[in-house]
Amino acid sequence: MTTATTVNAPAKKAKGGKFNAQMIPTIAAVVIFILMLIMGQVMFGTYFRLGFISSLFIDHAYLIILAVAMTLPILTGGIDLSVGAIVAITAVVGMKLLNGGAPAPLVLVIMLLIGAAFGLLAGVLIEEFNMQPFIATLSTMFLARGIASIISTDSLTMPENNGFGWIGGEGWKIIDNPKISNDLSINLGVIIAVVVVVFGYILLHHTRTGRTIYAIGGSRSSAELMGLPVKRTQYVIYLTSATLAALASIVYTANIGSAKNTVGVGWELDAVASVVIGGTIITGGFGYVLGSVLGALVRSILEPLTTDFGVPAEAVQIVVGIMILVFVVLQRAVTVLQKE
Amino acid sequence: MTEKQPIVVMKGITIEFPGVKALDGVDLRLFPGEVHALMGENGAGKSTMIKALTGVYKIDAGSITVDGKPTQLNGTLDAQNAGIATVYQEVNLCTNLSIGENVMLGHEKRGPLGIDWRKTHAEARKHLAKMGLEYLDPRAPLSSISIAMQQLVAIARAMVIDAKVLILDEPTSSLDANEVQDLFEIMRKVRDSGVAILFVSHFLDQIYEITDRLTILRNGQFIKEVMTRETPRDELIGMMIGKSADELSQIGAKKARREIKPGEKPVVSIRQLGRKGQIEPTDQDVYAGEVVGFAGLLGSGRTELGRLMFGADKPDHGEYYLNGKKISVDSPYTALKNKIAYSTENRRDEGIIGDLTVRQNMLIALQATRGMFKPIPKKEADEIVDKYMKELNVRPPDPNKLIKNLSGGNQQKVLIARWLAVHPELLILDEPTRGIDIGAKAEIQQKVLELAAQGMGVVFISSELEEVVRLSDTITVLKDHKKIANIVNDDTVSQATIVETIANSGKEA
Amino acid sequence: MAASDKKDEKNGLVGRILGNNLTWSVVALIALIIICTIVDHSFLKLTWNTNTGGLAGPLITMLQESARYLMIATGMTLVISTAGIDLSVGSVMAVAGATSMQLLVGGTNVWVAILVSLLVGLIIGSVNGLLVSVLGLQPFITTLIMMLAGRGVAKVITSGENTDASQVAGGEPLRWIANGFILGIPANFVIALVIVLIVGAVARKTAMGMMIESVGINQEASRMTGIKPRKILFLVYAISGLLAAVAGLFATASVMRVDVVKTGQDLEMYAILAVVIGGTSLLGGKFSLAGSALGAVIIAMIRKTIITLGIDSAATPAFFAAVVIIICVMQAPKIHNLSAEMKRKRALRASQKAVAA
Amino acid sequence: ACGGSSSGSDSSSDGQKTVGFVAVGPEGGFRTANENDIKKAFKDAGFNLVYSPTQNNDQQKQIQAFNKFVNDEVDAIILSSTEDKGWDDSLKKAAEAEIPVFTVDRNVEVKDATAKKAIVSHIGPSNEWAGEQAAERIAKDFPNGANGFILEGPAGLSVVKDRGTGWSNKVASNIKVLESQSANWSTDEAKTVTAGLLDKYKSQNPQFIFAQNDEMGIGAAQAVDAAGLKGKVKIVTIDGTKAALQKVVDGDLDFVIEYNPIFGKETAQAVKDKLDGKTPKADIQIDSKTFDKAAAKEALDSGERAY
Ligand SMILES: Nc1ncnc2c1ncn2[C@@H]1O[C@H](COP(=O)(O)OP(=O)(O)OP(=O)(O)O)[C@@H](O)[C@H]1O
Ligand SMILES: Nc1ncnc2c1ncn2[C@@H]1O[C@H](COP(=O)(O)OP(=O)(O)OP(=O)(O)O)[C@@H](O)[C@H]1O
Ligand SMILES: [Mg+2]
Ligand SMILES: [Mg+2]
Questions:
Q1: How much distance in Å is there from the Cα of A129 to the middle of ligand 2?
Q2: Where are the domains of chain C?
Q3: A238, B24, B486, D168: which has the highest count of C-beta atoms within 10 A?
């Protein structure tokens, strides 16, 4: 019942001519996310628990940030494969510094600067040396991960009283029930993620830089001929995505209190999956930050569902793959139907 | 009388591409309050000159002075900042964005919270209205309007910056007469406000109507700068093509009428062929050796009908007969298999395959009909390429150049060669003469007549009523995605007849 | 920028050689070999190994390893040429390897096992092809899904084990494919080379290559010329799957053991790098199989160099990145046009002075 | 003792007890054997085991799974962690929810006092011990000293470090490691790496290879064989899979140190004890064996090896 009404609504609107067809995939993501929650709740009874919701956000604040970061390059038809590795290198350096007694604010700044440095490098490779974003960021990914391992392959923990951990940690209990599974809590990491989302939204929809990003995604050569600052925008994109990756690193390490060179392997792909599930087209030009956030949530809820359904271990990846596929196919179908 | 000071002076501009000197020491002066035309054949270097002035290409020699200051232009942004606004020959907008945004990109109105969309769209509406496009919704996606309208949007965009220099590279090639008049109206207004306008067009009538001064290029060389009203037409043509105008005798050739004998079967005949939202079910016959012209206003559905007959869009209604036999045409492949070819009006997106060579572009359709694993023998391929390079006078005459590096007109010739190579029984030409210089246009028109004389059925779609009337045996008139008349083109028919037909049916409906 | 298209031809032959992407790849390859030879003086030495009946030496093991890269890079080249990408090749290697090992252990005839593995690769490739061509899904995301799911399929096939077929009696032919020698040269390298040549010949002697490029350059225009883009897209993904299966056989037969997690891991990235080093643009269009083959050998050589230099395993990704960045930067038009650009600037200054005077 | 009656009656009050298993995932060799054994043991013991694997050894997905189990209010959590640090917050939550946690295979390091309380027992063999055994074996094989290589797992995993630490603790001074290279746990890569190392250090007459797992040892053995050095280069590996034991019997490998994955029963027992109100031992060390040729043959012939 619910399905029918929610899916029909946009279609009706579309006939009115006002509705923007580009938003359909994103709306599909919202609907499916809600359906998945409902399904989880009905079958297993734990998905509406405040504790579940809280940890969905707290544990995935980093992924939400990465998804926003990844949205920028993907909107231009590029990609940033280095985000996972940047999380690793900034985390390792950050922990090293903290253990060396550096004050937390300084550490935060240095971590962000390291991220920015890799973004700048990617930007230079892409804009000055005509490397394709895929290859340029693949290179910076190898580079960042390599340097991270050179610095340390140890599992590093934060020292006590570091002035850093409060970013993650338990945060605040908004609703404190006797049972932890009914507590609604939030931590600074989640707030940072929300701020990043708002930042991404404003950047993309209310600044000229943001509109240039969409224009580049539509046609780079047209954007250039229109006299838009394409080159500068490209730098902004890769600088932003890398810096946000560093921010994700801060949130993540603060949350678990330790770091390591192997952190973040494959996260770039999770981020890409989130962005795509959220309705952004991988070839650029169409998409929304809010979609990516939903994509990240959908992506995050896949694992609990496979666990609860008792999917055999060997098949988990297949099932996760198929679920993403179903998503993409569904979106495609909706888009095609819309066009007709 | 005080001599006006030029706002732009380009001196000795030279630009080289691998193997071609596209420009060789060309001079150009633009004066405020004047419309200046760059004249020359296809490939003469007009667009290249414009791109030098807008910072798209870096110049290899020469100097550019804007407002008396020597200027280095390292990109379009520099040009824009120097007060130069440009509408390029190919539409360069972003189809993924809304119409209004395309107009305002980079100049959005800002409020305290970043871009203020309400104001921005209002501003866009204002600029669109200047172009007579007040009925467009600035929030609608650009992809929802036709290329011609996109061209107008691009011009609206150029008006957004307070330009000292406005460059229009062939803005009229896809506009109909009314729209051209509207455009000229605006150009005059802009000119009178003291802006220097650089204008390119292959229509001499338009040149004489709107321009004050001409610079003539030939083969990348500067020929002469003259005042328009002091230069008679044939002298101008002579300077452009380096031959006297008499030699262009074939201009104005008129088709010898092809009488359809009673009982004769058409090559192609469609019955109630249509597609929802694009073209209403339509009947149409094309006989061997007949030229059928499609006439209609912009957006009347001529292209849609052509595409449907080629299977570029799948028809959802009606039947298709080839030489009396029922066939099904649901893809370009099946159309080509049935010897039906279609040359698109959207050369850049649906025509050329930019990174392939001229030779490959010519052969690819023939190859596709033969199948992937039956390559055309080298000898045969050489012959075909040789033949059409010569016959259509493609320049530069090097089949191994990438087609994207050819000038627009020459790309068009290569595309026509591509379709001729498959020896179609029905050839649908959608705006084949758009953006083509007078010489080449005559050549193409001549070619159409020749093909018909050899027995090919031709559908000729053009926004220039003049050539439709001159070349066609019958004229199909479309309006609002519907065929409204089938006119046998005898001596009583003139452009006025067609215009009237369109207007009248509007009243009835 | 369009200006970057403007290569300088005045420099003639030297300019053309310097401007050629392949040149820099060859230079990189030679440089790596020189570095290795400096560190290990016997790097270039070839000896005859009576034990295996073939040549032996660092270069030979390098060629042996390069065989699998050759295979996936070839498939990847065709896919990339259509403006697509195939991220699933590594997983397909694992699936094909798992299939063959599992079948061998189950007592299947070795030739049947080989054929079935190839078929499995072809099928996965075809599924990619169908999703991309018929459903019109984006290649990146489609093959990303297949990369995830493929690994899972490999695990399902072996029930999560690393199936070992080294004890199976009938596995000799498969073992030979990966470890044997033909006229002293590693058999897998010879086989890979032959396959590359066949693919190259088919692509260039028929119209396949041109049609693939055409679809990659402008799909809609290609459709309008009567090419069936769907067929072409399907074809390239199917080929890529099949060749990845061959690579999977090379990788598993080498040790007669599949490792469900490690076999083919990250190799899609290596394949893409090989293709790009070889001069094929990720944006699609013109492709160079020879370039990709060279790229594949370079990848193998980089890995060999890492071992030879004894680079700390922690530092290997960084070294890898450094080499790739250097190669790609050297290929950049900006570098090629450096001298021409300087000449242009000088001429421009001169002419401006003349104007001023 | 006052917990009274048998565990069966206890759990029957609201049906089965649910245990969450935060696992690594089926990655072949040790891991698959280990996790299958645990799953089977808990099933046999009448538990409802909810299994949640991660990907790419990603700790983040494990943390997510752990927190989910806390929210699901399972009766106990088994944690087979990919990393030994970073669990404080999650364990604190478990402590607050009074869910007992049992770490298996890898122990975790906890600073926080509340978090520490959540962990009831650790069950598993010792990686350091295994590394020590390798060093001792090489010392025994080459009392007069020797040169050789170490093949490591991916840089940064704590197993790799622990096995390395064990080796360093016990390695004899006359044993010289020419080079340590990572072969990423992979047979195939180990073969390539070993072939390269054998080429490079030909002049220094390498005599041993310590491969940190069976997979890599098997690959190394093939490279050694191809170089015609079978028997001359002694290979020691850790894990003890059947394939590796077979290679010991065949003479391809010299010595295999078991890293015993079979401790499902012990784990299930510990969980049961805890839920029954007993206090299981805090550190339940699982014994592992070592196999030379004779022992390997015996073990294989007995047909009892599960993996
Ligand atoms: N990027 C390029 N690379 C190589 N050659 C080029 C390039 N752009 C243009 N040319 C060549 O430069 C010459 C001038 O082209 P240009 O586009 O300026 O002609 P045009 O006068 O605008 O012609 P048209 O009327 O057809 O638009 C042509 O010979 C063309 O082939
Ligand atoms: N005035 C208009 N308002 C809205 N949409 C229009 C208008 N004119 C054209 N279009 C769009 O363009 C399409 C018509 O295509 P097109 O303009 O190519 O037809 P045509 O008759 O071939 O004209 P031409 O070839 O001169 O552009 C219509 O489907 C419609 O979507
Ligand atoms: Mg032009
Ligand atoms: Mg049209």
A1: 41
A2: 19-356
A3: A238
| Domain definitions of chain A by residue range | 4-8+21-169+188-339
Distance between CA B463 and CA B474 in Å, rounded? 16
ipTM of predicted assembly, 2 dp: 0.88
Q: Indicate the CATH number of A4-8+21-169+188-339 among 2.60.40, 3.30.1360, 1.10.3470, 2.50.20.
A: 1.10.3470
Residue B311 CA to ligand 2 centre (angstroms): 19
Q: HSE of D208 in the Cβ direction (CA atoms, 13 Å)? A: 26
Return the pLDDT at A338. 66
Phi, psi of D102 (to 5 degrees): -120, 120
Compute the Cα dihedral for A275, A278, A280, A281 and give only its sign. positive
* Dihedral sign for Cα atoms in the order B253, B254, B255, B256: negative
Closest CA to D201 of D149, D271, D255: D149
Same domain, B191 and B309: no
Q: Which of A29, A322, A330 is nearest to C135 (CA)?
A: A330
One-character DSSP codes across A109-133: HHHHHHHHHHHHHHHHHHHHS---H
Residues B245 and B275 in one domain: no
CATH of the domain at B220: 3.40.50.300
Do B83 and B179 reside in the same domain of the chain?
Answer: yes
Return the sign of the alpha-carbon dihedral for residues C236, C241, C244, C246. Answer: negative
Model pLDDT for residues A23-61, shown as the tens digit of each residue? 777 888 888 889 889 999 998 888 888 888 888 898 899
Please determine, looking at this structure, whether the domain spanning C19-356 carries the CATH number 1.20.1250.
no
For residues B368 and B484, membership in a common domain is answered with yes
Q: Give the length of chain A.
A: 340
Query: Cβ–Cβ of A322/C317 closer than 8 Å?
Result: no
* CA-proximal residue: ligand 1, atom 19 (nearest): B43
D206 upstream amide cis, omega within 30 of 0: no
CB contact A176 to D (< 8 Å): no
Burial (Cβ within 10 Å: 0-12, 13-18, ≥19) of residue D109:
middle
**Regions in chain B scoring below 70 on pLDDT:** 1-3, 243-256, 506-509
Q: What domain range is B481 assigned to?
A: 270-508
Q: How far apart are CA D129 and CA D285, in angstroms?
A: 11
Residue B273 to residue B269: CA distance in whole angstroms: 10
Q: Which residues pair with D77 in a beta bridge?
A: D20, D101
Q: Domain check: are B297 and B185 in the same one?
A: no
Q: Are residues B220 and B323 in the same domain?
A: no
Chain A interface includes D93 (CB < 8 A): yes
Domain count, chain B: 2
Tell me how far CA of residue C142 lies from CA of A26, A282, A306, C23, C122, in angstroms.
Answer: 18, 11, 21, 34, 16
- C312 in A contact zone (CB under 8 Å): yes
- CA-to-CA distance for C195 and B445, rounded, in angstroms? 50
| D1 pLDDT higher than 60 | no
